[in-house]
Amino acid sequence: MNAAMYLRKSRADDPHEAAETTLRRHEDALRHLAAREGIGIAAVYREVVSGDRLCAREQMQRLLADCENGEFDAVLCMDIDRLGRGSMAEQGYILDTLKCAGVRIVTPRKVYDLNNDLDETYSEFESFMARQELKLIKRRLQRGVRRTAEEGGFLSLPPYGYRRVIIDGHPSLAPIDEEAEAVRLIFAWYTREGLGCQQIADRLHAMGILPRRAAAFGRTAVLNILANPVYCGRVRRCGADGTLDTEGLHPPLISEREFAEAAAIRRARAHPPTTKRTLKNPLAGLIVCGFCGAPLQRLPASRTRRQESIICPRVGCNVASRLGAVEDAVVAALLPLLPTTIEQKVTPAPRDLAVLRRQQIENQQARLYQLVEQGVYTPEEFTRRRAALEEQRAALPTASPPAPPPAPIDTATAYARANAAGRNAFLRLFIERITYKKALNALPEEFVLEIKMKA
User: How far apart are CA 386 and CA 367, in angstroms?
Assistant: First the structure.
């Protein structure tokens, strides 16, 4: 019998036990079972993932595809719930795939032949019980997490400035001196010196202060630090059962007053999200950095920077340029590929009231002939009403001649007249992506653009 071995450890199972230790122990047990039963193991599929979502389990997807291709006669696993205990649809898909492929499920306790009605029913029952067990585990975990947060514990990954410790039997945080000092500097520069997030990131970069998982601080990382209540000694948890905000067991790095001041400054500087009406960057969503691939951002003009610029959000990645110069270069490369003129959009004028009234009179006259033929009107009434309608028609003014259609407009002129949102929509019709590169010592207008047109 040609078989595959599937090993899975759920993150919810034995959280304090190493994943590799668990998988190795399961593999030894299954190899012993295979040797005793004379089963040959052709492939081993390992993963550490919850069995809740099949889309997140790459090894299980590979196993099912190989089974459909007829590569295996059986699948060895520690228990049938190791194959999955998610939704009924996903469990049914796994079992149906193995059944149609004629693949048996071999566990240390039982061999399941899904083409046998009794085994199929038993496997479906065990899958149902595994799914209920998963729901119970999730409820217990959620209650435990909330109870830990209520008591001031901290279960998430430790943020910048802290490391994980145990305080009074609860998971909590302890400061890392060098990182804690950087956090205090960030709040001081923001609240006392009035620096912005990008200015703070630049200053940290100049001082050689680095984050944990990036080459340099960015404006978003600084903003996340300023908005995290953990630095003033609070623990905040948002879940399906509401938001919980309690005093943490860990020591704060700043005072609650300083955190509140930073929050007030953030609210004062906040701006509504960009929409088509407020869009100010005609290249938004189109231009990316040629070195890191990040979308470039518009930097508005200020007292020290007289013109709008376009920059990479990663510090030190790509040199900034004037937004107008980059846009002009894009337009200069695009316009020769387009028609020289375009038709102007005409807003239809309301129909002439005289025309509408004349149409109504004609309809009434047609109805008048029908009524006299049906005997509803006498000849005298018919004559009188027809004369009244003719008088109304004669009193109507003549319809004004239709206005001539507007002449086509030059494409470059039409683009220049549009606002930023209109120019952005125009460019999106033809351009898929713009890649921007600029050397460190290049002149202000020396940059390289690679424009990928839409097919």
Answer: 11
